[in-house]
Amino acid sequence: MCNRYVSPEEAAIEREWSVGSRNPIRWWDEVLFPRGTGAFIRRARDDAGYSRELVTGQWGLIPWFAKEAKLAYQTNNARSEELAAKASFKLPWARGQRCIIPADSFDEPYWGPYDAQFKKCEWWRFRRADGRPWGLAGLWNTWTDKTTGEVHESYTMLTINADGHPLMGRMHKNELDPKTKEPLPLEQQDKRSVIPIELADVDTWLAGTQQEVAALLRVPPVKIFNAGPAS
To answer: Which key words tag this protein in UniProt (predicted)?
Structure first.
């Protein structure tokens, strides 16, 4: 799961994803943590055809049934395999409320070889090898506070199983068998990865059918990563 990423500058987002230049000056956090304010790109809601718009909202999707904007549980990550069934995400998924989350880099904890004590981890930073920003798969939702009438935009970052991946499969703690205290078999670890959407696939991700976007829910190849310990 990803709990920290760095947002690109506004001009870089505009260049990379062609979202226009009518946006006001930057109004979101540079370094994002859960429940922070971040930027995301979605299909424009007021365009009967197709165009993209840059939006800001809470990193942590607020579902329709929420009583308040600040939830007691985290919704900044969503398992892609559970989108159709998970209460918090199934409606945005069914409605095609997909978005692109721009990121210069994101961080994940590397625990190294198995250590029974799990004394500490080493934080790794992940950038693209080609120097371009990441465009990470996400879902968005608009929620209205029934008490105040205030409208809240929010989003979540999708993840996918990465067991066996040469890089992402090495992140996060190993899950242990409760009886033996040894690491569970790899197929039971459920290591996770974010899901990059390449530029050529952005239109499909934002406006395609469920069948079309299902093909984009895949673990990224190692060659696109520039990863190592964060300084």
So the answer is: Covalent protein-DNA linkage, DNA damage, DNA-binding, Hydrolase, Lyase, Protease
| 3-state DSSP assignment of residue 125 | strand
Q: How many domains does the chain have?
A: 1
What residue numbers bound the domain in which 195 lies? 5-229
Going by C-beta distance under 8 Å and a sequence separation of 6 or more, which residues neighbour residue 123? 107, 108, 109, 110, 229, 230
pTM value > 0.85: yes
- Strands 98-103 and 134-144, bridge-based pairing: antiparallel
- pLDDT tens sequence for the chain (231 residues): 789 999 999 989 999 999 865 555 568 999 999 999 999 999 998 888 889 999 999 999 999 999 999 888 999 999 999 999 999 999 999 999 999 999 999 999 887 654 445 567 789 999 999 999 999 999 999 999 999 999 999 999 999 999 888 899 888 777 777 787 776 666 667 889 999 999 999 999 999 999 999 999 999 999 999 999 997
